[in-house]
Amino acid sequence: MPELIPLRTSHAPAVLAFELANRAYFAASIPDRGDEFFDRFTDRYTALLAEQDAGVCAFYVLVAEDGSVVGRFNLYDLEDGTAGLGYRVAERVAGRGVATAAVLELCRTAATTHGLRELRAAASDENAASRKVLIKAGFVPVGPATPADLGGEPGTWYRRELQP
Protein backbone atom coordinates (compact mmCIF):
# COMPACT_ATOMS: atom_id res chain seq x y z
CA MET A 1 0.00 0.00 0.00
CA PRO A 2 1.34 3.46 -0.83
CA GLU A 3 2.32 5.75 2.03
CA LEU A 4 0.72 9.16 2.68
CA ILE A 5 3.42 11.64 3.70
CA PRO A 6 3.68 15.42 4.01
CA LEU A 7 4.79 17.24 0.87
CA ARG A 8 8.48 18.21 0.87
CA THR A 9 10.77 20.12 -1.47
CA SER A 10 12.37 16.86 -2.55
CA HIS A 11 9.04 15.59 -3.95
CA ALA A 12 8.97 18.21 -6.73
CA PRO A 13 10.30 16.01 -9.57
CA ALA A 14 8.00 13.11 -8.65
CA VAL A 15 4.98 15.43 -8.31
CA LEU A 16 5.65 16.96 -11.72
CA ALA A 17 6.04 13.49 -13.26
CA PHE A 18 2.74 12.44 -11.64
CA GLU A 19 0.90 15.49 -12.98
CA LEU A 20 2.32 15.09 -16.49
CA ALA A 21 1.73 11.34 -16.70
CA ASN A 22 -1.89 11.71 -15.58
CA ARG A 23 -2.81 15.00 -17.28
CA ALA A 24 -5.17 13.48 -19.87
CA TYR A 25 -6.67 11.11 -17.28
CA PHE A 26 -7.44 13.99 -14.90
CA ALA A 27 -8.80 16.19 -17.71
CA ALA A 28 -11.44 13.55 -18.46
CA SER A 29 -13.18 14.26 -15.13
CA ILE A 30 -11.95 17.67 -13.90
CA PRO A 31 -10.86 20.86 -15.70
CA ASP A 32 -7.31 20.69 -17.04
CA ARG A 33 -4.73 22.74 -15.17
CA GLY A 34 -3.51 24.25 -18.43
CA ASP A 35 -0.05 24.65 -19.91
CA GLU A 36 0.77 27.56 -17.60
CA PHE A 37 0.60 25.22 -14.58
CA PHE A 38 3.37 23.11 -16.08
CA ASP A 39 5.35 26.05 -17.46
CA ARG A 40 5.41 27.66 -14.00
CA PHE A 41 5.49 24.45 -11.96
CA THR A 42 8.61 25.35 -9.95
CA ASP A 43 7.19 28.73 -8.90
CA ARG A 44 3.81 27.19 -8.05
CA TYR A 45 5.43 24.37 -6.08
CA THR A 46 7.53 26.84 -4.08
CA ALA A 47 4.37 28.85 -3.31
CA LEU A 48 2.60 25.69 -2.08
CA LEU A 49 5.43 24.91 0.30
CA ALA A 50 5.33 28.51 1.59
CA GLU A 51 1.58 28.18 2.24
CA GLN A 52 2.24 24.93 4.08
CA ASP A 53 5.01 26.51 6.16
CA ALA A 54 2.61 29.36 7.05
CA GLY A 55 0.02 26.83 8.30
CA VAL A 56 -2.62 27.91 5.76
CA CYS A 57 -2.59 24.56 3.98
CA ALA A 58 -1.24 21.05 4.49
CA PHE A 59 -0.21 19.10 1.43
CA TYR A 60 0.40 15.36 1.25
CA VAL A 61 1.60 12.96 -1.39
CA LEU A 62 0.83 9.28 -1.72
CA VAL A 63 4.12 7.56 -2.49
CA ALA A 64 4.38 4.06 -3.96
CA GLU A 65 7.06 1.58 -2.93
CA ASP A 66 9.14 2.56 -5.99
CA GLY A 67 9.19 6.22 -4.81
CA SER A 68 6.77 7.47 -7.44
CA VAL A 69 3.91 9.76 -6.48
CA VAL A 70 0.55 8.09 -7.11
CA GLY A 71 -1.66 10.66 -5.40
CA ARG A 72 -1.96 14.15 -4.01
CA PHE A 73 -4.14 14.95 -1.00
CA ASN A 74 -4.52 18.54 0.12
CA LEU A 75 -6.00 20.30 3.11
CA TYR A 76 -6.54 23.93 2.21
CA ASP A 77 -7.88 27.04 3.93
CA LEU A 78 -7.21 25.71 7.43
CA GLU A 79 -9.18 28.02 9.69
CA ASP A 80 -11.27 27.74 12.85
CA GLY A 81 -10.98 23.94 12.98
CA THR A 82 -12.11 23.40 9.40
CA ALA A 83 -10.46 22.90 6.03
CA GLY A 84 -11.19 22.01 2.47
CA LEU A 85 -10.08 18.68 1.03
CA GLY A 86 -8.84 18.07 -2.49
CA TYR A 87 -7.29 14.95 -3.96
CA ARG A 88 -6.33 13.13 -7.11
CA VAL A 89 -4.83 9.70 -7.74
CA ALA A 90 -2.91 8.27 -10.66
CA GLU A 91 -4.79 6.30 -13.26
CA ARG A 92 -2.64 3.24 -12.52
CA VAL A 93 -4.06 2.98 -8.96
CA ALA A 94 -7.59 4.24 -9.60
CA GLY A 95 -10.49 1.95 -8.75
CA ARG A 96 -8.54 -0.04 -6.14
CA GLY A 97 -9.65 1.74 -2.96
CA VAL A 98 -6.38 3.68 -2.75
CA ALA A 99 -8.07 7.10 -2.78
CA THR A 100 -10.63 6.08 -0.15
CA ALA A 101 -7.93 4.66 2.15
CA ALA A 102 -5.81 7.80 1.78
CA VAL A 103 -8.79 10.12 2.43
CA LEU A 104 -9.63 8.13 5.56
CA GLU A 105 -6.01 8.38 6.72
CA LEU A 106 -5.95 12.10 5.98
CA CYS A 107 -9.15 12.55 8.01
CA ARG A 108 -7.36 11.01 11.01
CA THR A 109 -4.27 13.14 10.38
CA ALA A 110 -6.39 16.27 9.97
CA ALA A 111 -7.85 15.72 13.43
CA THR A 112 -4.75 14.55 15.29
CA THR A 113 -1.97 16.56 13.62
CA HIS A 114 -3.81 19.68 12.50
CA GLY A 115 -6.52 19.89 15.18
CA LEU A 116 -9.32 20.04 12.63
CA ARG A 117 -12.91 19.19 13.53
CA GLU A 118 -14.48 19.27 10.06
CA LEU A 119 -13.52 18.81 6.42
CA ARG A 120 -15.44 19.89 3.34
CA ALA A 121 -14.97 18.83 -0.26
CA ALA A 122 -16.70 19.52 -3.55
CA ALA A 123 -17.10 17.02 -6.38
CA SER A 124 -18.52 17.69 -9.81
CA ASP A 125 -21.60 15.88 -11.00
CA GLU A 126 -19.46 14.35 -13.76
CA ASN A 127 -16.90 12.90 -11.32
CA ALA A 128 -18.64 9.77 -10.04
CA ALA A 129 -15.38 8.29 -8.73
CA SER A 130 -14.67 11.27 -6.50
CA ARG A 131 -18.22 11.33 -5.16
CA LYS A 132 -17.95 7.61 -4.37
CA VAL A 133 -14.66 8.14 -2.49
CA LEU A 134 -16.20 10.90 -0.37
CA ILE A 135 -19.27 8.85 0.54
CA LYS A 136 -17.15 5.78 1.40
CA ALA A 137 -14.93 8.01 3.58
CA GLY A 138 -17.91 9.21 5.62
CA PHE A 139 -18.64 12.54 3.95
CA VAL A 140 -22.27 13.55 3.54
CA PRO A 141 -23.71 15.81 0.83
CA VAL A 142 -24.65 19.23 2.20
CA GLY A 143 -25.65 21.25 -0.84
CA PRO A 144 -24.89 22.29 -4.38
CA ALA A 145 -21.46 23.41 -5.52
CA THR A 146 -21.49 26.07 -8.19
CA PRO A 147 -19.43 26.01 -11.37
CA ALA A 148 -17.25 28.69 -9.74
CA ASP A 149 -16.45 26.21 -6.94
CA LEU A 150 -15.42 23.49 -9.38
CA GLY A 151 -13.65 25.13 -12.29
CA GLY A 152 -16.75 25.48 -14.43
CA GLU A 153 -18.64 22.31 -13.47
CA PRO A 154 -21.75 22.03 -11.27
CA GLY A 155 -21.55 19.61 -8.38
CA THR A 156 -22.11 18.95 -4.70
CA TRP A 157 -20.44 20.02 -1.47
CA TYR A 158 -19.73 17.28 1.09
CA ARG A 159 -18.85 17.55 4.76
CA ARG A 160 -17.38 15.24 7.39
CA GLU A 161 -17.02 15.83 11.11
CA LEU A 162 -13.73 14.56 12.53
CA GLN A 163 -12.99 12.81 15.79
CA PRO A 164 -9.69 13.52 17.58
Query: What is the ordering of alpha helices and beta strands?
Result: EHHHHEEEHEHEE
In angstroms, what is the radius of gyration? Answer: 15 Å
What's the oligomerization state? single chain
Task: Report the sheet with the most strands, covering strand number, pairing sense and barrel closure.
Answer: 7 strands, mixed
Figure out the total of helices.
6
Instruction: Give the fraction of residues assigned to helices.
Output: 25-40%
Secondary structure class reads alpha+beta
What spatial order of strands do you see in the largest sheet? 1-2-3-4-5-7-6
Q: Assess the beta-strand content as a share of residues.
A: 25-35%
Quick check: average pLDDT?
93
Number of strands: 7
Low-confidence segments: none
Overall shape: it is globular
Q: What is the rounded distance between the termini? A: 24 Å
